[in-house]
What does this fold into?
Amino acid sequence: MKRPFALIGITYLSVQAALFYFQQIYIAAVVAVVCFVGAVVSLFTLKNKSIRHTALGFCITAAFASVIFGGYSALVRQPITEKYSDKDIYVTATVIEQPTRKYDYYKYLIETEQINKKSERLRINLSTISEINVEEFDRISCVLSVKECEQNSMIADGAFLQASADKNFAYIVKASDNKPLYYNAIKLRKSFANSLNNLMSNDSASLCRAVLLGEKSALSQDVQNDFTRCGVSFLIVVSGMHLAIICSFVFFCIKGIIRSRALRSLIMILCAFAFMAVSGFSPSVVRAGIMLAVVYSGKMFMRNGDSLNSLGIAALILTVPNPVAVADVGMLLSFTATLGIILWAQGMTAFIMGKFTKLNRLKKPVEFIVNLFSVSVSAAVWTMPFSVLLFGKVSLFSILLSVVLSPVVSVLVACALLTVIFNGIGAIGFIAYPFAFVCEWLSRFVLAVVGAISGIPFSYVNARKPYFYIWLGLAAVMVVAGCFVKNRAGYAVKSAVVSLCVLTLGFGIYSVIDVRNTELNIYATGGNTVMIRRGKNCSVISCDGDFAKIYSTVSDVKEDTDKLDFLIVPTDRESSAAYADIIQRKFDESDVLIYDSKGEFSDRENVKYFNRNFTVYLNENTKDEIVCAEGGVYQYISTDNTAVLLFDGELDFNKIPEKYRKADYVIADKFSKDIKSLFSGKVIVTGNGEGIEENSDIIWIQDDNMAFALN
It folds into this structure.
């Protein structure tokens, strides 16, 4: 094997990532057995030494990764979730990371010292509506209602439990005088953020904080959605590109002063580690930092580094101690993009520059543009499968925007770094102002371009639609066929044209069909959050669930519309009110209908309160009969061919009239043993599913959204 670390590291990472997203321990056992058998077969059947070693390395690594992941899940993660999930616990814990504000709530990563007054260390992701008066590494004591953590980024940090707290959250804080060294990195991060906030407008400072410090949450959710729609969200996530810019700047500053190769290399390694700490040890930055450390360690001992081996070593360092590190989407995208760049970019640049052999003076600028294009294309193509699987969308402008904005963001990062450095030096702090001025206008340019492109109709393709999978299959067939074609350049152009035509035709046909289709969407919020859509007519007819899932749900709804015909809030729970409040701020609604069981509120503008039965027409063929009963509200939604019964609140199912019991679908926010016997339709439970038998035909919405047609 020429690159053993590359083979072992990338295989180990890939297998663990696949196993994590399958979420089944028995699959790990199957993979381990199959790979062990494959290793034995390879050992005795493959005669070519090089191929045999490669096959053995792959099979043994995959088997080992499966055993480690399965063992970690069964012996570490699963016991924690089974022991504490859906229980109230009293904890004494330490805040181990800088709190962040995401959407309208605050997030704290805490590590327990005691649970119910017994020593036990585990991490919990705590979300609160109000800010807690606590500093990093202070102790906090409180009662938490915990459940299994569903946020992959938190799972990657080792937080297998999560808790949400309302406005009445009670806690005790004990300040700590013994702060670890990492606390200084957090203070430096805060100082840099304050400098940017003081010298720039809010929007520009937020973008600079995102690209320099990794504080993506500083950006508004609308701006984050714009970057996602454009396929350039990697620009606002601190990654290897940002580390490379900063380290290149440092190297430029010291290369004329320090002659010793070993000392320069050591300074670069320390610089990389310092940036990792200031950015909160983001997995994508750690990956880049490890690769950079490997490269400069080689230079210290007069050896050349290998990019693929460095990537493999980084994968092993990140995943061997923490098998669930693969839960971090940013890390997977970072590794995938880097692998694509290593394998494709240089060859693509050489091929394109071969067409410009007669260039003389313009050769270097053209080569720079071509290299930028090659890197962008390589990263975009290699990360596309993850974008499809994880985000459900592909931008049509991602490559173009990458080429245009990447150099701008590179200059922005360098200027932002100079701004915070000079602003921190009192005597020459005035030097920061011209750099801040440049940052201001570069930030405005980036935000304006991204905002304009994201506003273009059909700027991205929804990858969850059937036509996209047809196009993806055709593209895969054409790629495989291209391996057997002699004139690959001509074939590539023709294939690209055919591919674009098929995608456009599929989109057009689906759009025509979709206008005539009525669809009901159920969102996995832990409660009833339901939308009905027909063409441009969209209505949210129920909204409730876990507060931490509000904004991810809002983002999903925004994939289909920015305007709602109706927002119906059929319960007076605090969680429903929180959902309704956010939805009203994020969407334009024609009518807001809110259940008021006691008749305490008066109508205002487009908001109307109800505690009586009435009927509304959600679109031209969908009728919604809203019935107020003892304990809550139920809705009977009907089209020409399908009927749905939707329950909210503590309802007595035995008192539901016979005419409503024959609905094709029954949706309830919690399971009841009576529900199956009383109703003939398909039962869907969105909230508490306790009591549902393992082999039951009842659908329990937990992690994934659900949609079906009502035609």
About this structure: The chain has a mean pLDDT of 83. The domain at 85-180 is CATH 2.40.50.140 (OB fold (Dihydrolipoamide Acetyltransferase, E2P)). The CA atoms of residues 634 and 647 lie 5 Å apart. The first strand starts at residue 87 and ends at 95.
